[in-house]
Amino acid sequence: MTQVARRTSSPIRIFRKGVTKAVDDNPLSVSACKAIGATTRSVEMISESISDKWKRSVDAILSPTLPSLPTSKTEDEDSTSTNSEIAGDYDDDEYDLGHEPKPLVAEEPSAPPMKRFSRAHSDVESSIIGGEPAEQIDPDEGSHETAVEEASPTRKVFSFSLPFGTNGPHKPGRLSSIRSVLSPTRTIFEPDDKELQRIEIRQKLARQESISTVEEAILFEDVTKLQDNKIDALFKSLKPTVKLPPNHELPDYMRIFQELEGDIIILGGYRGSILRDSLTKRRAWIPVLKAGLNIKKIDLLLGPKDEDELHTEEKIYADGILSHIGPVDICKKLMATLEANPKVRVHNFGYDWRLSLDIPAEKLHALLKDIKKRTGKPALLIAHSMGGLVSHSAMQKDPSLVRGIVYVGTPAPCSNIMGPLRFADHILLCKDLLTSEVNFMMRSSFVFIPRNGELFKDKNTGELYNIDFFDPKNWIEYNLSPIVSSIRLAQEAGKPVPPHVKQQSRFAISFDEAYEYLCRTLKRTSEFLDSLEYDESREYPPMAVVYGNAVPSVRYSLVDGIEEIKMGNYYHFFYGPGDGVTNQKWVFPENRGYPLVGKFNSTLGHVALLTDLDCIGKAMLAIVRAEQK
């Protein structure tokens, strides 16, 4: 075969090289190789002609949490959506046909080989929710901050993002994500003194030791952006892995999946349950194609009154945990592995994550009572992210109903929420599904607000601006949401506003209605958070934590003066170790003083934590051993 002169590697050339090797091994595939070669050339040509809009939409599916580059146009203006005639739509229910995961079980020596699902693919989910490994670059001299690089005033980089969202569109180079992942070249350097310091700090984190703010700055000072590792994870997910050994050869934390008995309830977090249209039964969350192309309109906006929460199921209802998105696993393999154990009954608890958390907590409490009544035994809870707060609230009502709780990446607080409250979230192909108004009207959004007021820090002086986020007047003064901002008041009064201030300007409710709603919701949220506090006079079930400490996670937003807060210039960050969403200093319930029977750190990102079966197994084993004591 004719050898092509060696050139700089590109994803297409690397792909061709792999095909060439396959042809050498199998001469019968020569014609297929030629066809694939022609296809790859066509792909390169077509990719150069794709419009920016389509490119952003495609990239949003694979990279939904990369920092955004808002344009000068108001992104969520005129974006209030209503239900309209709904045509057929793709959702994961259709994908599931023929794609059921195999449970992760041990094999008998005489059984035919069974491939274990690769755990490497779980990296992709971390980026869907907002956590991605950091890309290390050469440090700039004099840099002593862990921060995202500053953008020009007209192109703000904003990465206060939450599950499945990105705050506005971005315009990466064509095929840049594929090229950056597939390029075999890597920068090789000898570790200097600062790199040796980082190694020592990482070792401390691996030992679950706390690190100082200075050490956080050293660890992440070269982080200027979050690396896109999703395509790499997708490629890894296609690679077969070795089969599991027989059950008696497995470590005890993996045998627990086969030896455990009883009822287990699994629940997701913020945006972590499927929502369906009550009339059509089609998915309202997460929608895919037709909603993104505006062929189908979905309205997730809640009304401002308390009774509006009581009637949500007339339009939208919850239908189980969001276990996967297409081939991307979130907890589907975990559920399949537990369900393979005939001694375990798995309960898939979905809830409307938009509502005040005392509502799903009450429903979970009712389920716990029913299980205890039927079986005479309490249930084990495995709760991801905000689901840990729901589980904890249900447990507080009657701890005897709960066998134990595994908190997986549960944050309290989570400063990332300030992004969706101030700006719109772009979800996959949909830019008007989660507007700033929709996010603001979700009662659950407010449980993540820092109660201590510590979020914004002056990047020049180091002064920490302490803002009482539970004082509704501060929301107006600092323009924390366009629905109740001084900017909206000025606009409605016909007064001039700064020309560079861009925010949603049309709303479904009046300013007075929004402010009254905010006052009531902040009070209700504060009462809910108070109900989660530790009471040393009570006897609690065993609690274990699975958390991440290997991904840069926002701790502060660095601003150039108080006016930048009012203008919404939250695009310079101070990072600490975490899972990309939950900073390890904010892991619940340890930060509330609750004793733990086990604490297990994962290297995966936030939404991928439930795919770390090693850590989940260790946490369940710790609870079982605590029971035995």
TrEMBL record:
GO terms under biological process: lipid metabolic process
GO terms for MF: O-acyltransferase activity
Stretch list, region Disordered: 64-152
Coiled coil: none
Name of a matching Pfam family: LCAT
Signal peptide positions (record): none
Top-level division of the source organism's lineage: Eukaryota
Name assigned to this protein: Uncharacterized protein
